[in-house]
């Protein structure tokens, strides 16, 4: 029976000095992904990830983009090497940004810049000393919830901010209230680990930052979803581009429903969860939540071998990975025509389509992969088709981004990610 | 210097070991406190507070078992740094 897969993306605390170094040395696409992030940020994030210091890397303005870049790089390496697609994506807390990015909803450079800015805001909140956050192990989540309610009734502000497993939660709120609740839960046999340099994520204390973040989020373009993302807020699938900005602003003030997310996967028959991040953080959480889902981390060498082994049982699936040529043909057909000049349509759309089909026929005959030249030719012909069909510029951008994303050709064909430049080039 | 450092370390640890007066030679790991979130924050605190770099070769639990051991590690690191 075919595995049903979910990809998981870790959140804060999953960084360490040396993160992603193994993948970076092994795969060109990982190196290119880090280099693009360096260009976006204007400083050497890769060096910080590999050499530290830990204190510098741990600043949220660095760790947030670092975790995103590691996760996306890991995902891209996987897609290139194994390429069997997941049914669902989900990211824990900060990891939701990587989930949206890998789903195709947020462009990678936008996500890098956004998380640097989000991290900078986070550092400011943390430095201001407004609120605190702690992890609580060993007390059932409903009891933690109950203890929070008692505190709230006493006029104190503290709430459950992450439902990680039946016996691990995070609490966030007013600093004194968090400490008081830690003491009460310790008396019930719990173990509290305060996150000293952290902002009080996923509670109402983050509302001012959520307002600032929403402004930034509202300015970004959002693409089509290739895979649904199970969101932290309600543990339900989301695949609507227009909902992403609002969701990520609300995400800052609402608890992470990870326990319910794992149950959703179980209910949907997921058998394999692959963590796309620098180290095993979420795999143990999978096991603590549900039985029957194997959890492995693609960023960890030993796990990577196991994943390769498991998926090698399905050699047929990899062949269905789209190429630029097959995707161009599909998009040429899928876009609605708005041009009723039949002659022009025949001359440009039909002829261009036949030329792309010709490339595909010759490739199928020889069994070869398309060359870079053939890919460019197909994309240029597609541009003629979309222009003739009068597909709006914005929609064309979406399609090109999606084709590049699905085929993992970000760096070979990056000129096609900016259609204005492309139009200039062709004309 | 060494005593001063111990006080700083103790103050940091008191946020984690609330309602428990830690002795300088008390084994903190024996108190059932060895999760990675704590370990990472401890290393970060030591690096930042004492301006030292703790390498992977120093990442031996024994170096962090007691306040005394941590203070000794900091002293050793500081001396090496000054020689460079």
Automatic annotation (TrEMBL), chain A:
Residues 8-321 form the Malonyl-CoA:ACP transacylase (MAT) domain. It catalyses: holo-[ACP] + malonyl-CoA = malonyl-[ACP] + CoA. GO terms for biological process: fatty acid biosynthetic process. SMART domains: PKS_AT. SUPFAM superfamilies: FabD/lysophospholipase-like, Probable ACP-binding domain of malonyl-CoA ACP transacylase. InterPro entries: Ac_transferase_dom_sf, Acyl_transferase_dom, Acyl_Trfase/lysoPLipase, Mal-CoA-ACP_Trans/PKS_FabD, Malonyl_CoA-ACP_transAc_FabD, Malonyl_transacylase_ACP-bd. GO terms for cellular component: cytosol. GO terms for molecular function: [acyl-carrier-protein] S-malonyltransferase activity. Its EC number is 2.3.1.39. Keywords: Acyltransferase, Transferase. This is [acyl-carrier-protein] S-malonyltransferase.
């Amino acid at each position: 029976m075919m595995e049903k897969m979910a990809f998981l993306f870790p959140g804060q605390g999953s960084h360490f000095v040396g993160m992603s170094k193994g993948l970076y040395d092994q795969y060109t696409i990982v190196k290119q992904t880090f280099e693009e992030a360096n260009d976006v940020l204007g400083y050497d994030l890769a060096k910080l990830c590999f050499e530290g210091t830990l204190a510098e890397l741990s600043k949220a303005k660095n760790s947030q983009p670092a975790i995103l870049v590691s996760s996306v790089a890991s995902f891209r390496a996987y897609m290139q090497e194994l390429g069997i697609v997941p049914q669902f994506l989900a990211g824990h807390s900060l990891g939701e940004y990587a989930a949206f990015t890998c789903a195709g909803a947020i462009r990678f450079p936008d996500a890098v810049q956004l998380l640097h800015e989000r991290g900078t805001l986070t550092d400011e909140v943390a430095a201001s000393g407004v609120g605190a956050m702690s992890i609580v192990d060993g007390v059932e989540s409903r009891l933690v919830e109950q203890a929070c309610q008692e505190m709230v009734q006493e006029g104190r502000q503290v709430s459950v901010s992450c439902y990680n497993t039946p016996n691990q939660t995070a609490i966030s709120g007013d600093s004194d209230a968090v400490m008081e609740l830690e003491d009460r839960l310790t008396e019930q046999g719990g173990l509290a680990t305060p996150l000293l340099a952290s902002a009080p994520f996923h509670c109402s204390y983050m509302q001012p930052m959520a307002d600032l973040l929403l402004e930034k989020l509202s300015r970004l373009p959002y693409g089509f979803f290739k895979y649904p993302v199970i969101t932290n807020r309600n543990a339900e699938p989301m695949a609507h581009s227009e909902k992403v900005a609002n969701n990520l602003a609300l995400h800052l003030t609402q608890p992470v429903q990870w326990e319910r997310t794992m149950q959703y996967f179980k209910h949907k028959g997921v058998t394999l969860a692959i963590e796309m991040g620098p180290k095993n953080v979420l795999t143990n959480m999978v096991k603590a939540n549900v039985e029957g889902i194997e959890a492995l981390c693609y960023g960890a060498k030993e796990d990577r071998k196991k994943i390769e082994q498991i998926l090698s049982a399905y050699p047929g699936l990899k062949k269905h990975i789209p190429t630029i040529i097959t995707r161009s043909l599909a998009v040429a057909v899928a876009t609605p025509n708005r041009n009723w000049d039949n002659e022009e349509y025949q001359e440009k759309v039909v002829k261009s389509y036949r030329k792309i089909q010709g490339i595909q026929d010759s490739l199928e005959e020889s069994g070869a992969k398309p060359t870079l030249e053939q890919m460019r030719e197909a994309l240029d012909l597609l541009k003629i088709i979309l222009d003739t069909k009068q597909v709006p510029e914005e929609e064309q951008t979406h399609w090109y981004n999606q084709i590049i994303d699905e085929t993992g050709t970000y760096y070979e064909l990056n000129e096609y990610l900016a259609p204005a430049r492309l139009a200039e080039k062709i004309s | 210097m060494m005593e001063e450092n111990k006080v700083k370390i103790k103050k940091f640890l008191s946020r984690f070991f609330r309602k428990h007066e830690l002795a300088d030679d008390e084994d903190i790991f024996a108190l059932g406190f060895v999760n990675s979130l704590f370990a990472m924050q401890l290393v970060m605190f030591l690096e930042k507070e004492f301006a030292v770099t703790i390498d992977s070769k120093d990442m031996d639990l024994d170096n962090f078992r007691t306040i005394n051991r941590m203070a000794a590690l900091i002293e050793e690191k500081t001396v090496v740094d000054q020689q460079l």
